[in-house]
Amino acid sequence: MRPIVKVEGSVGKMVLIGQFDFNLHKEFRQASQELLDTPDVQEIQVDFDQVPFLDSSALGMLLLLKERAAGQKKTMVLVNCREAVMQVFEIACFNKMFTIRPAA
């Protein structure tokens, strides 16, 4: 399923639904580009509330988006991360590279 993109003021949010793996590569790239191309967006939030699983290719996609966002002086935040997703981020040391907000 294609990520849902929402823009509210200076925040662009990408809501991921389902497993975040290589199969989502094309859709993730298109949604990312949409947020990067929106001049008003200064912060990109990737919402993991509905993501039960992610793999190493998903980590690579996030790193690439972070690099591209930084090149445009935009910040990136990973939000609503569930426990299983948080564990993957901690193992990959993403908690040192990203601002991560766990699920409430």
UniProtKB/TrEMBL annotation:
PROSITE patterns: STAS
InterPro entries named among the record's database cross-references: Anti-sigma_ant, STAS_dom, STAS_dom_sf
CDD domains in alphabetical order: STAS_anti-anti-sigma_factors
Cross-referenced Gene3D superfamilies: STAS domain
Any coiled-coil regions, as ranges: none
Record domain STAS: where: 1-104
Transmembrane portions of the chain: none
Family recorded in the similarity comment: Belongs to the anti-sigma-factor antagonist family.
Protein name in the entry: Anti-sigma factor antagonist
